[in-house]
Design a protein that fits this description.
CATH class: Alpha Beta
Strand content: 25-35%
Distance between the termini: 24 Å
Structural class: alpha/beta
CATH topology: Rossmann fold
């Protein structure tokens, strides 16, 4: 990935949760044409074949199938479980240093409005030679969710925080019916962690990803259901 960058667009990696917001960020970045999108980056947790995308709980085979469906390579940053903050920061620092050595100048995030999250990312990237980018920042989340759905983005709810949202929302399609059913306290994009999603089709995909949904798992105050890509290869 090293080489003469004169005249080239800045090279960017996209932080990839597998959900609707990172997928929509990819769509916006491609439409803008401001960057060469070199690939995706996902943090993963767990041992060997049990490793999954952090928070969203997506298995690696499905992660790789999704990355192929959007036409980009994905790099995994593996974290221990449990993962204290200093271990997280060591893993991310090593990843950022390697990315910069490979010619990456920007990393994009799908954050929407949480100021403390944005500030943390900016502080940790300061002085690394990599600039954070926030393509969705400040957008009205009700309007944004409607824009995603109208454009043909398809996602399923794969995790809910049971302290904020009822388990009956787990596995549902992210659509206008779901938005209408969400309680007033719930952000339409789940930005406060009320729910997380898995995107399987939309304008950022070369073809829809066929999935089925596994059994419900519960841990602490969270409920998860894991989508599995059909006919996927590792």
């Amino acid at each position: 990935m090293n080489g003469d960058m004169s005249g080239a667009r800045p090279r960017l990696l996209l932080s990839w949760s597998t959900g609707k917001d990172s997928a929509w960020a990819l769509h916006g970045l491609r439409r803008s044409g401001d960057f060469e999108i070199a690939g995706l980056m996902s943090t993963t947790t767990g041992e060997a074949d049990q490793s999954r995308v952090t928070i969203h709980g997506i298995g690696l085979t499905t992660l790789h199938a999704q990355a192929r469906a959007v036409g980009l390579p994905v790099t995994e940053v593996h974290l221990p479980d449990p993962c204290p903050n200093d271990a997280y920061e060591r893993a991310m620092s090593a990843f950022v240093a390697q990315a910069r050595a490979d010619g990456i100048t920007h990393i994009a995030f799908g954050d929407l409005f949480l100021e403390d999250v944005r500030r943390y990312r900016e502080e940790k990237l300061a002085g690394t030679g990599i600039t954070p980018v926030f393509p969705l920042w400040g957008k009205d989340t009700r309007a944004l969710s409607g824009e995603m759905i109208a454009a043909g983005l398809h996602a399923r709810i794969v995790s809910v925080d049971l302290q904020q949202l009822d388990e009956r929302f787990l596995g549902r399609e992210f659509d206008t019916a779901l938005l209408d059913d969400l309680p007033p306290s719930c952000d339409p994009c789940g930005e406060r962690g009320e729910f997380h999603s898995f995107c399987y089709a939309g304008p950022m995909f070369t073809a829809p990803l066929a999935i089925d949904m596994g059994a419900v798992r519960r841990k602490a105050h969270f409920a998860h259901v894991e989508p599995r890509a059909l006919d996927a290869v590792p």
